[in-house]
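P.,

For your records, the input lines for the assembly:
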Amino acid sequence: MNYWRAVLLVAARDLKVELRSREQAVTLLFFALLVLVVFNFSFDFTVIDFVTLGSGVLWVAFIFSGVLAISRSFQLEREQDRIQGILLAPIDRSAFYLGKVAATVLFMAAVEAIVVPVSVVMFNFRFSGRIALVVLELVLNTVGFAAVGTLFAAMTTRTRRGELLLPLLLFPAAVPVALAAVKTTTHLLAGRPFERYASWVALSAAYDLIFLAASVLLFDYVLED
Amino acid sequence: MIAESGPAVPAIEATGLGKRYGPVVAVESLDLRVTPGESVALFGPNGAGKSTLLQLCATLIRPTAGRLCLFGTNASSSDASALRRRIGFLSHQTFLYEHLTGLENLLFYARLYALPDPVSAALESIRAARLEHRRDDRVGSYSRGMQQRLAIARALMHRPDLLLLDEPFTGLDRPSHARLEATLEEERGAGRTCILATHDLGQGLRAADRVLVLADGRLLLDRAARGLDQGFLEALMTANSASGRAAS
Amino acid sequence: MAGQPSGSGWMDTTERALDLLVALLVPVCLYTIFQVVPTEEKMGVVQRIFYFHVPSAFAGFLGVVLCAVCSALYLWTRDRRFDRVAHASAELGVVFFTIVLLTGPIWARPVWGVWWTGEVRLTSTLVLWLMYAGYLILRQSAENPEQAARWAGVLGIVGALDLPIIYKSVEWWRGLHPKVLRVSGGQGLDPAMGKAFGLCVFTFVLFFTALLIKRCRVARLEDQVAELTHRVARRSVHTEPA
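Structure tokens returned:
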């Protein structure tokens, strides 16, 4: 079976089940919005500039709901050890991995697409920059986060302390993309020229490539048992 | 009597096969040869290694010792993924997604196995499972018996040459039980290689040409089913279960 | 029999020699740090922590790199010995990083007035410490030792790949702030200090190695005990076999 078709198949199934059950997607969204609300109460944004803090607020929301999204993606397989059904199939294990990453990125992107406009409204922010760059930056950093998170989640969701273990492993490992994300978003919100944050964008892209490649090669070892 | 003729390539060939999880030994020094078309019953007390052996043959897990070849290909090689096209696995777990409909579940697996016409294959399978009237209902709403029927359809849809069954009768009511037995008879008649792990000695003896008994990860017995006495098997199992060993 | 160094004769001798060397060097080192080396003019006595802080960082990094290499080798060969070394290296890495993270603030507070300087190396060390603490917890949480070894192997490699990227990203992050301290023993370091520093690094690395060898031996014995226990259990009564 064609490798990329397998990836699409796994991703599509994830999406379909999620849309059908609607359990997790809604929780993700409301969790992210809740984070925004908490920050809105915590700081006086009439005094503090959204440009200064906004990036941090947004990425806290995305990272925490991201961890939920990633563990959700493996909860699906846990019941009845459904993952075995996939493992029995004549597809590459790494195709399964990429399919999962793709589905997770789509979920996180959906949350981001709603949360960003909501934050603009909630914090009375005037955005003058280029939307395309915002989208690029969101996608790059989300992919990096999801890539490493999915690799780790494949291990942690099978342990007793899985829910605690996933953030414990993921947060340090994702420090580079977290830093890149916050820095880039700050520059974007402030409307600064691309040269100021081009190196951060390059870092995100490099991180994505390195860890997607590494995970594709290493995923077999995680599942093989 | 096993036929002399038949293809030279064995369906399963295990040499010194072993699987251990750290200090725990699940399967040890197993030598086995199964010719295509054979029907094998796998008996053994709990913890004997039956599930492990079946999972090894399904390439779900990798051996830690020895060699395992399926249809002539090494199960640990990178070609193993293509091998899985020819393997069907059924346990008491259904591998079905509750939120998807019966048809959607089969369609997913049909596509996963790259069947030439996934839609008609799925439709055909659901018809054969006599679940056509419920095909657009979520699997979560099916009864256990219906779920198992669908699971069987899923396992057989890609017409595997090797069928591995890990106590699939667990929790089935009478009619579903009978139906599964009938399906297995059909598959056997169609020349598929079947390995059935079961606690039901009588059923195993009826369904198989050959009997394997595992205990403590080792092969105790490997004989033709014909002429094998059920009572003898029962005694063998008791002697090798945990409590039996303490007594001896 | 248990607890004795096993293996061939020359390994025994090497281990004993190493132990002896470390036992000699540590007091020499301590003496050097506290008596021989001149007091640094600006920072005073506290500066002597430098001789613990930086060599510990060296040892910690050695642990991380060794863990990564052995993780890759384990995944390739499935030889348990590599896994034991990887595990022990990670443990020692965490220990030495703990020393770095404790001595850092102790040094910074009297000298610069702040507990945490946000300095690049210290921050990166904190991130690595968290990651390898996670590595140890993951190993513990696996279902069986074989799975633990495999997963740890993957994590060890990912950790090593991440190391330079983490460092770079923290460096860029802190880039706007003036460097609060220059830790490297570059120009301006008294030659006596330089020699003492070299001695300390050497001692710490040897100490690391000695501990590593012992920890690996303990791990091997643990494995043997587990295997024997299991073999005995298979022969006797047990309520419900695994």
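Two observations worth noting. Chain C has one domain: 9-176+190-233. The longest helix of chain C spans residues 191-235.

Regards
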